[in-house]
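Much of our argument rests on the idea that a fold can be written as discrete symbols. The amino acid sequence and the backbone structure tokens for this protein are reproduced below:

___
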Amino acid sequence: MSTTSEQSPTFAPFKLEAQFATELPELAVPGHGEDTPDPTLLLLNEVLAEELGLNPTWLKSDDGIQFLLGHNSQPLTQAVSQAYAGHQFGQFVPRLGDGRALLLGEIQDKSGHWRDIHLKGSGRTSFSRGGDGRAALGPVLREYLVSEAMFALGVPTSRALAVLTTGRKIQRETAVPSAVLVRVSTSHIRVGSFQYSNLTGGIELTKRLADFAIKRHYPALAVRLNTPTPQLYVDFFREILKRQAHTVAKWTRLGFIHGVLNTDNTLVSGETIDYGPCAFMEAYRENTFFSSIDTQGRYSFGNQPSIIGWNLARLVETLLPLLGETPDEGMTQAQNLMNEFGELYHGALLEEFALSLGVDNSHKELFETFQNLLTLNSPDLTTLMRTLTEGATPPPGFESWVAQWQELNPNYEQMAQVNPVFIPRNHLVEEALSQALEGNMQNYLQLLRAVTHPFDRTAGSAFLTLPSAPGFEDDFRTFCGT
């Protein structure tokens, strides 16, 4: 579905806001999507479009495609690249920002919630640092598939609205098709956003960013913004701790590995974002990592909870003057808050395992034994949980534990709603992407349907439930696509 540049754009039947760009101009640089030689709408998430109040038919039109590429002057109020800093693999970089991304603006969905519409791969920006600002089709398709799978699994996440190819080849390891991902999130405010605001604008800018984030994400706290006190910002940070603890607990239950948990990839909303070198592991091993750029395993599966805690410690450092009437009070509050994170995470993990095992969360010893057995036996996590859900014979090593667990009369119906049949298994994703790059989308679309209906066996063939061949994960690596 192509479009021509000669056509004059028509106004869309909706309007975006520019709240971030207007309220925080110090953190926003105006921009627009680059021209594309032959844009084609490859994927459109029509259900999400409807949820946002966007007309799928209009989005498929030539003018709709121009909008999705960041070209139309309307209904865009002010497309911007966002500024942020970040610790990347533990090393602080004071100026990162959206090097290949644009925030088109915000829209209020049918539930009354504000959502960002955001492009990835839309061309160079002020933050490109010598890069081309473009995205390869393979990683864009990966993010579309995995983010939508995560949403279907009940994990807080950014969503994928569309994929557009540009008609241009770009050079990565080889010449590959370029593409633009249109994604949606409740905001794109990162830990790195606060690091940048603190570095460049001090506490005045940081307070404005915090107030913006409170209004966007924590409406129960926003009513206190007229008479803000240190306790407001203490409660704000505590809510971030809770959300991140619950998100990473869901990752742990599902065997998900983010792959690049820098502070610029950690959102204050608690949503998962930036599915570059992400993957789901099969054999349960704490030290598993797949990212080609994580050479030391900093962001391995078992490290993710502590890394999220480390990232949040970098966030609270930027908020210290807001947390108390004096520096000492602020520091004491920050230390007390960070001391809560471990308990919050373990409580959230207990809740997740209780759901997946169909029992209440009072059986702490049972859960701890189960985790020890996972570490000892390294089963395929997804297969094991679905085996328990469907009452099939457990794998060797779990027999006595299963007998003890069954005495609790687990709720199998509840288990069937949280333990997936289908996940984006690495070998299936790689095969589907390889064929998609050759122009054959059939396997990709079949896999997409299965993982977006993860609890329904009829959503895909039995082949899509099978783990990879022995040894596959030992050498498997994922790439961020830049």
Observations:
- The chain has three domains: 19-185, 191-354, 359-410.
- Confidence is low (pLDDT under 50) at residues 1-10.
- The chain has 17 helices and twelve strands.
